[in-house]
Amino acid sequence: MRVYLDNASTTPLDTEVIAAMEPFLKTHFGNPSSIHSHGRESRSAIEKARKVIAELLNVSPSEIFFTSGGTEADNSVICGIVHSLGVKNVISSRIEHHAVLHTLDHISSQGLANIHYVNLDEKGHIDYGHLAELLNQNPNSLVTLMHANNEIGNISDLEYIGNLCKESDSYFHSDTVQTVGHYVHNLQLLNLHSMVGSAHKFHGPKGIGFMYIRGGLKIDPYIHGGSQERNMRGGTENVYGIVGLAKALEICYRDMNKHRSHIENLKTLLISKLDGQLDGVSYNGDSANLEKSNYKVLNVCLPESPENEMLLFNLDIGGVSASGGSACTSGSNLGSHVLKAIGADPERGAVRFSFSRFNTEDEILFAAERLSELYVTSQE
User: Fold this and answer.
1) Do 35 and 179 share a domain, yes or no?
2) Most CB atoms closer than 10 Å: which of 95, 276, 281, 288?
3) Which of 210, 118, 124 lies closest to 161, judged by CA?
4) Which entry of 79, 165, 301, 328 is annotated as an active-site residue?
């Protein structure tokens, strides 16, 4: 058996999504910027997809812009707000995805804005009192805080953060890559100026994402060279990717409650098995708390062992694909910046399991057994 439990990194394509994309890979190949019938056919598909996404998020289609994925979308929004709106202070956290943190490093190195980092508690949750202090000291800021952390799964309260930002006349951007398609986002109820999504995180294709930018928020484009996306992103659109993104999100909203119930059961089962089979096991952040974490993510903290460095490798050999943290740093020697930021013990091993609706209970039992065997073996 081979088990895939790295769905926070990427997800398998849904067969319904493949079917929706197929015509645009075979026969509907026109350039959407062309005025002939082939081009109009592609243009119509893009705008239908934009409308579907906008309706699901409860926004106007004019507020949805397609990108190559979440990283480009984060870069576009953050740089756009700083460059175009004269923001001089940005507030974020040390556990954001590198799509945000590296962008902020660049902004800081160029002297474009001051970067402030909000305190975190021992579980990795935002200190909202400190956030309020930072906003009081730095009104008219940009706040960029993710909805759910990709490594430890901690959920932030978008409504509460948005209200704090409104009180200080600040902009609020959220990296929602890990929650789009898995949680309902009714943007009419949130004081959120921008957010992003990436199709491959919810069973859509890789290489396509979107950014929501609230109407009236005028920022300069990040990519130049064409008038596509209403002059917000130059370059020929990824038509079949856009069609796949919209179909994948539509499926997620259609079956969200069923999918969530199934995945929560899998997560609870894995916690139960690991607690019973591994002495000294714990969980990083609040990932074992279903009320305070993304139900798709469980970050397992293993007791000290000289073999911890080889656990992921040995899990793979044993038939289980998982992660040690953010997939974007896999293979590096830098370790997890998230675990470091929350003060996790560097001597303890960490394995992130992330689930999807396609996983089964048998796969969870298999993964728990493999991890238990490896850990016991490493202690002998």
Assistant:
1) yes
2) 95
3) 118
4) 328
